[in-house]
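Submission sheet (multi-component)
Chains listed below:
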Amino acid sequence: MSIFMRLRRGSDADLMGLGAGLVLATPVLVGIGYAAAASLGVAGPGASEAGVERIERVLTESATWRGLGLTLWVAALATALATAGAVLVAVLFRGVGWLDRVARGLAVLPLPVPHLVAGALGVWVLGQSGEISRVLAAVGAVRMPAEVPALVYDRWGLGLALTMAWKESAFLAVIATALLATRSLDVEEAARTLGAGPVHTFVRITWPILWRGLLPAVIAVFVFVAGSYEAAMLLAPSDPLLLPLLVADRASDPDLGRRGDAYVVSLLLLGIAVLAVVAHEWTRARWEPLDP
Amino acid sequence: MTGSRAATAFPPPGPGRVVRGVLLVVLVATSLGPLVLLAIWSISGRWLYPSLLPTEYSAASWRALGTESLGPALVTSGALAVVAGLVGCMLALPLGRALARLRGWRRHVGAVAAFLPVAAPPLALGTGLQVVLLSVGLGGTATGVLLAHLVPAVGYLSLFFLGTFTLFDARVEAEARTLGATPWQMWRHVLLPMLRGPIAEAVALGFLISWGQFALTLVVGGGAVRALPLEVFSLVRAGQDRAAAVGALLLVVPPVVGLAALRWAARRTTVAPA
Amino acid sequence: MVLMAAVTACGGRESRETGANGDRGQATVEALARLPWDSVLGRARGTEVVWRMWRGDPSINAYVDGWVAPRLRDRYGITLRAVEGQGPEIVNQLVVEREAGRHTGTASLLWINGETFSNLRREQLLAGPWAGRLPNAAYVDSASPIVSRDFEQDPAGFESPWGRVQFALIYDSARTPVPPRSLTELAAWIRAHPGRFTHDQGFTGITFLKVVLYARAGGVTRLQGGFDSTRYAAARRDVFAWLDSLRPFFWRDGATYPPDVAAMHRLFANREIDFSMSNNQNEVVTKVRQGILPPTSRALLLTDGTIANTHYLGISANAPNSAGAMVVADFLLSPEAQLEKRKPDAWADGMVLDATRLPDEWRARFAAMETDPRQVPRDSLAKYARPEISPRYHARLAADWRAHVRAR
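Outcome: structure written.
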């Protein structure tokens, strides 16, 4: 039975729901469509004749793959660090005392900091002549900026990963604390009444609930970091170029004909986003206990 | 009774205290430190390596708030964000409710569709939206930028309301209807009062999403709509660190204060720890 | 949705192929060319002019917003609104506007030069000719090869000159009391001070590479007369050989480069490197005043010759207010505006007017203008000025450098 027949037979609720989904997804589909059209040379600055050579060329350039590699690496590192920080705070500061509340509040403080402010802070704090370096110089640990490890414009994007981890850990901390305060509480109590020890409770009950509940948000953080432009602009190395920077680099290429390359890389980024969104939904559906 | 909070017996008290203490110090340094740094930068006159603190101070950038670009940008961002929060919430509520009614594979498709605009890289999303908005004459206008901001905002808020309505007991609605309430009465007297909390939270979230947007505003606004993130980014790129710090504080402090107020208000109305 | 986007795009391509006929700016400019200047002034009175320009320097913004805009309002009744936009963004924006069928765009006046001008002309996105009919155009130093040619291109009335600058290195006289004066001395200095020199990836960095290109090619005259790929290839080999011999001594071993000139200034001011650079030899003055550079910073011209170029104003083909834009461009070209712009405590941007053609009182005021001690003396400027060459050299050099330095 075709999908249309099934839809017609389905209830109004299904139609409205899928309609809602269509409304929400349309702008992204338009974006993907335009990027595809521009990659094929049909639209945008640098449009010439329609054809797949541009797509082939960009996808075979090493700049694209090295950029992809660095983007995925930085996103993974930032996500891992953010998750570790958030889990640490959520687990260690679970109580109701003022200390725990203050700690949780502090952990959530960076939540509204936009990526670009985080990037600027990264330059001012983590740079080789940044605040940390100056403190080290003041105590005599180093004598000149070059002796401080390079975290800005560095080959492995460490400064960028640290900065993004700082910012995104707040987001994960909110979710982790909520999880521990609600979802795992009842199960833990049940385990305690059955006589399980604290370590055992944590390892067998708390932690599995925690990571399963966090996984969708972790995937979300991964894709946010991968798609971020502002912080990368301020902290990332010039080689390899992170994908968002590669898009901007191609879009301002002096050679108009090459500007269409930006759209191919854009498509790559959009592809990563789509994969991440599907993964996010899959993990959420798998482990969301309240889904009907 | 003893079981409830004794769940925090992991990690064990002794070494746990030390770890907690250390972590607390780290948290204070990493959460408050950057804000303090922004404040110092905003009044610095000349601050070069290796000085730990500025060698000269200057309130020039704060004084220039009214005359230079940051003041108007603050207003622009504020207006956009408030409207985006309100309109976003209004749109997302029915959308989220519709999504919550789905079952099976359709539900997953719906959730994916809602999350797509949030996860899509703003730069790529923006270029697509730019062409469409330009062709209807909204390119480079505040309305166009507002519409662009609504895309991720409505997406995220729809997911939020999807969650809310999933937990929501649909029986209340059914009961109200069997008692003879019209849809309008049901909304006004039953649903909306119950949803007051989530609605407030959604407006705040929508505000935050619009407030922090950069790439969308830049691409769709074509540089003509000067929201605060754009100004701050231009200033940092131009090396104007003092003015950028002022802008950064303007960007960060209002949402922080707002969020803190929200959490404090939420604590007063709920029993479970926030 | 995909179809909709594709159809929009196809429609856009078509309008490009039929030329600029539908564009409002071009039509107005052609009409205005037949009218006396007073009519242009009359048309412009009471209107708003949107000017797309780089807004990253507070000194420039202060000049435009604080000095130019009030006078335009008082004398001509024009409201000036400056919006952010740099070269490639301007081109992309205009292309996308045309694609979306906007025959009336947002911005009327554009701050452009070099390859931006070249790209805009090729895509027929500029309105013109109009620059020659401005009353103040009579004062322009058209004999100077720096002003009369934009990267070797003839403005042909499609852009009006606004200011001129010359490339200079910046050094700290406290750290480097005896700076190198030529490229050879610079190379020796770099070897003696490893990790203390670099250049940026942006326009300024590529201009530095062009300075090296001129020197290694045996002088700018060897590269003039349009783009020649054989001459370019030979010169490029020499430039990369020179760079490769020095790369291990660059900052971060030459593996990474700062993204733009502001990052360079930050590194220089914070003692990570000992040289910065700028396309404007007077940027030292304004940046020291803003607290960004240390007070002991000085500008340095290389004796091999440094590149001087002019920046211009253009009117977009889909400009909503060409009359207003022309009036603004004319005012900016006036001796009064050029004098104010040149002041060290304003922008310190060079003027494009010929001092000998000016009325006596203006000539006297220019001669009497104070100079900041950090500024490079005027005769040095002239002695070491070299004109720009075809923009294709810049484009090719930028692309080839990136390919060479990053593993492609």
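Remark: Residues 62-92 of chain A form the longest helix (31 residues).
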